[in-house]
Amino acid sequence: MSDHPEAPVGAFEPPYYVAVFTTVRTAEQSGYGETNARMEDLVREVPGYLGMDHAQTPGGLGITVGYFRDADALTEWRHNAEHRAAQQRGRAEWYQSYTLHVAKVERSHGFTRA
User: Fold this and answer.
1) Does the bond joining 15 to the residue before it have cis omega, within 30 degrees of 0?
2) Is 74 domain-assigned?
3) What is the Cα–Cα distance from 85 to 43, expressed in whole angstroms?
4) What is the tally of structural domains in the chain?
5) What domain range includes position 45?
6) Quick count: other Cβ atoms within 10 Å of Cβ 90?
7) What is the dihedral of CA 106, 48, 41, 62, to 10 degrees?
């Protein structure tokens, strides 16, 4: 997550990659919080991981954006064994639906009020 829960992750020098994971969860969330916390710890260990933003609507739509320096970092995360097990459990228990979009960022900038 960003250092400040109310602030987005800062802009990075392009190019870099983003993985946008959009979800609607099921009512069954047993174990989700612990697994999500573990995934956040694990992804931080991936060389080339830059950060993460997350938002949740009151209606249940969740959006997580992971930022990665290069395609190799994203591939390493995708192939992580614990991450793959969490994905399987997510499909079996936690998600009603989800989409994943992966994109190469070619332009990036930000603004922070002084």
Assistant:
1) yes
2) yes
3) 14
4) 1
5) 16-105
6) 19
7) 10
Quote the crossing angle between the two packed helices 81-89 and 71-79, to the nearest 10°. 60
Residue 66 belongs to a domain with what CATH number? 3.30.70.100
What is the token pair recorded at 46? Answer: 């991936």
5-64 pLDDT tens trace: 578 898 999 999 999 999 999 999 999 999 999 999 999 999 999 999 999 999 889 999
Is beta strand 16-25 parallel, antiparallel or unpaired with respect to 95-105? antiparallel
Whole-angstrom Cα distance, residue 68 to residue 55?
A: 18
Residues paired with 24 in a beta bridge: 61, 97
Report DSSP letters for 70-95, one per residue: SHHHHHHHHH-HHHHHHHHHIIIIIE
